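Protein modeling request. Please complete all fields; requests missing the sequence field cannot be processed.
Requester role: graduate student
Desired output: 3D structure, token encoding
Chains: 1
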Amino acid sequence: MSAPSRAEVAGLATRIDDDFRAFVDDAGFPCLAGKGVVHRDSYGLGVYGALGARTRRLAHDLAAFAASTPAGSLAAFVAVFPRRAPADEASFERRLWRQLDRLHADDAPGAGWDPHVSDDPADPRFAFSFAGCAMFVVGLHPHSSRQARRFAWPALVFNPHAQFERLRAEGRFERLRAMVREREIALQGSINPNLADFGEKSEARQYSGRETPADWRCPFHVRHP
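Delivered output (225 residues):
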């Protein structure tokens, strides 16, 4: 089978971007911050191969996003993986962490972990960091048990932590969080049981969207120089 042409790749990217905008624009979609990002066109979107595979292009694109995004601004980077979609939630979770591990391996040696967060997935102040920027990762895929995560394509949405800290500093975070949770209850009938505020419980449990058991251990480990 021949490799897809540049035009075919561009056409797929346009289709996926249209799908993502429609997904977020849906009246029932609960995340108001996500709606704001799409309405302001303050997001980047890249299409890659299979989730969990090593891709230096993703590392390059995510580093460029981190470098070009003003601290505290409402923004996101959406990485979509249309090839060989995971068959279920557990498979998606495994491949999500494999992808983050490979991204970490491709991080610039001098970037370091964002000093505002912990690099220990068991720590309540843990967050994934890339290019020195802490990011909250939201996994999306067709088999998610959470309707708000049930996107047609496997994807990882990288949200800079600094935007949440800015909302807290401005006194807007608690109100926004309450509104989002009300909307999720209206959509699903419940909030995700893994939800917790930063500093209360490691956010690693939230990335995949799967309800993790009490004895779950994050498979991600930071490589210290």
